[in-house]
Amino acid sequence: MCGVRADGHWHGTVVVRVRADTLRGLGLHPDQPTSAPADPMPPKWWGPWAR
Question: What pTM was computed for the model?
Fold first, then answer.
């Protein structure tokens, strides 16, 4: 829902709905334990931007 408030400023709301089984497949569901990267860290010679 978007529109102009009484003070003349625009406002809007965006709602995104995602099925719970989709979030679980990505490891993002709030009922899941905190995840950790499965891949090993890149070699240090790649530099700090690779971590």
Answer: 0.39
